Write the structure tokens for this entry.
Amino acid sequence: MLTLNLDLPNLPGAACVGAPPELWHPAPRDVTEYTPTAKAICGTCPVRQACLDHAMSAEAAHPTDRHGIYGGMTAEQRTDLGRPPADTCRNGHPRTDENTTIVASTGRRRCRTCKKANARANRERARAREETAA
Ligand code: SF4
Ligand SMILES: [Zn+2]
């Protein structure tokens, strides 16, 4: 596991001081339960940006070694944040702010045009099934 140089619970003013450290480093079976609590505490943290910046720069040197929540972001979200934004989705639609939404649970960007096309295709499949059944 990557050990960040920053001793986060001892960072002056850190909101996680005194909270159970396992909230930020949950065992796999506890991820779903603990992550929202850790993120909520990070959301009130006055040193959140410094924490995130530190994690991002430490992890940039070890991209495959990301664990835990820092600066209110999961390892997966920090991976996305560190990735240069692609100009288009895999179907070639622009990845602009207008054409994407951020999925709250994962922090990933989703293409709105693809989402609409998928919904339309699902409706058409459902209609075709109904017509076949009728
Ligand atoms: S952002 Fe979260 S993990 Fe980082 S110091 Fe603040 S409470 Fe702790
Ligand atoms: Zn798309």
